[in-house]
# Entry
Amino acid sequence: MSNLWQNAMDHAVAIARKSGEVVREALRDDRKVMTKSSSIDLVTKTDQKVEHLIIQSVREKFPSHRFIGEESVAAGETCDLTDSPTWIIDPIDGTTNFVHAFPFVAVSIGFYVNKQSEFAVVYSCLEDKMFTARRGGGAFCNGEPLQVSDQEDVRQSIIATEFGSNRDVEAVDKIFSSLRNILCLPVQGVRSAGTAAINMCLVASGCAEAYYEIGVHVWDIAAASLIVSEAGGVLMDVDGGAVDLMSRRIVAANNRTIAENLVKEIESFSPTRDDTPPPQVNHY
Ligand code: IPD
Ligand code: CA
# Structure
């Protein structure tokens, strides 16, 4: 990364840390929950407050920059990634965890220019782990360099995945069929942290060989993708092609061998893309 974006990255780290304080405080006494698309698609005042805090503070410093934020999109904003400098924000990745005080919750901030990730910040608030990466500059946790695992045998791996919030029976059947295939390879373990960003940081840290999910959103994976690749890992679509951040499908692995062995076991399906325009309402 050129030094051009260093100020922006410093700001992202500072605002992620500040957001983490807000999340930790709210966890003690304000976890009132609301729902979005369904009874299991949760949001809280804290998600909205933290997203507002991040966007306001960035706007003051970088008025021409654009944003894709989970709660702004939920409120009707478009989810378009253009060539302009764009901050992709998940104020709380792991909202269901937050609501239940299950202790893995992250603030995720990705920064893209010309559709390319320049830097990334994932702050695991309760563990107080600040994951960062710069394009071409490596990945770090609390300043210590990260390196993916060197395991090449999928049968000696831990695979992270999530069940997401889709309860459509056909989708659930495919999710379980994939899981069955993977468990029966057999792999040594399957894990779920409850946040895509932290699952991916576990891959970057060498604690899990791979993470895959169908149903994630761009804001869940925009930052952690760079953290994985800068730690030496690979990103792939669940069909084995190139990853597409808007497709809601991802495999993040320590290396191509593990990723390719994993995708053979995944029954893929295609949720509605994040960049699908909302349906037009005709006012006659
Ligand atoms: C969710 C979490 C979860 C994953 C979902 C995500 P949210 O994000 O990352 O682990 O399974 O696909 O949407 O709603 O907590 O920001
Ligand atoms: Ca979220």
In short: Residues 70, 90, 93-96, 162, 164, 194-196, 213, 215-217, 220 surround D-MYO-inositol-1-phosphate (ligand 1) (CB under 6 Å). The longest strand covers residues 116-124. The mean pLDDT is 95. The two ends are 51 Å apart (CA to CA).
